[in-house]
Amino acid sequence: SERASRIVRDLLSFARPSEPQKIAVDINRLVASVLETQEANLEAAGVQLEQQLANDVCTTMADPSQIEQVLVNLIGNAIQVLNGRPKPRVLTIRTEASGNYIRMMVSDNGPGIPREIISQIFDPFFTTKPLGKGTGLGLTISNTIIQEHRGKILVENQPTGGAKFTVELPVVKCAIAPTAASLPSEVKPLAAESAKRAV
Question: What is the pLDDT of residues 14-70, one digit of tens each?
C-alpha cells in the first residue's frame, strides 16, 4: 500500500506539475533543514555526512517545498546507492555562489552511474532500482521543478568515484528577507561554514 501510494503521488506530480510558489528562501538554511530530516536514514545506512555550506550564498526567490522535494530525492537516491557498500560511505552536500547562480551539490563515494545510461536517468519511468524500490519518476520530477525555477540539474561521475548531482538556481533578488515560514521546518543556526559528522 505504501508503494502504491508513492506511485500515485509521483504520477500525479508528473502529470500535473504545480506552479512554483516562490518566496524569499535562505538556501543554506533550507539545506540544513532537509539534512536534519534525513538524519535517521543516514544513520540506518551507516553513511557519514559532510556539509560544506558557503557563507556567500545569498537569499533567492524559490518554492521551498519544491526545492526540499528535489534535495530529499537526490539525498535518498545517494543513501540507497551507498547502503550495503563497503565503508566508509560518504555523502557530501555543498553549496556555493557562482555568478548569478546558487549551486547545491549532492555527491557520494558509491559506484557511480554507468556511462551507457547516464544520459537516460532523467527520462520518465527510467530506473536502475530493484523492483518495488522506485517509480522512475523522482529525477524526472526533480528536473521539471528546477526547470520551472529557470535552473538546471547536472550529473557527472567523479574522478575519484561516485556520482555528483549539481542543482543550479538563478539568483532572484528578494524584496524582503526570508522568515521561518520560508522553511519546511525549524532549523538550528549553522555553527561554521563547514561541518562534518558521522551518523
Answer: 555 678 899 999 999 999 999 999 999 999 999 999 999 999 999 999 999 999 999
DSSP string of 32-101, one letter each residue: HHHHHHTHHHHHHTTEEEEEEE-TTPPPEEE-HHHHHHHHHHHHHHHHHHHTTSPSPEEEEEEEEEETTE
Q: Distance (Å, rounded) from C-alpha 120 to C-alpha 155? A: 11
Residue type, 191: A
Please name which of 188, 154, 190, 189 lies closest in space to residue 169, comparing C-alpha atoms: 154
In three-state secondary structure terms, 105 is strand
| Contacting residues for 137 by C-beta, under 8 A, at least 6 apart | 10, 11, 13, 14, 124, 125
d(CA 98, CA 57): 9
Give buried/exposed letters for 87-109 (b at 16+ CB in 10 A, else e): eebbbbbbbeeeeeebbbbbbbb
For 171, the enclosing helix (H) or strand (E) is none
Cα 153 to Cα 90, 101, 141, 176: the distances in Å are 21, 12, 11, 27
Task: Answer whether 0.85 is exceeded by the pTM.
Answer: no
Could you count the other beta carbons within 10 Å of the beta carbon of residue 86? 7
- Report the alpha-carbon distance of residue 162 to residue 128 in Å, rounded: 15
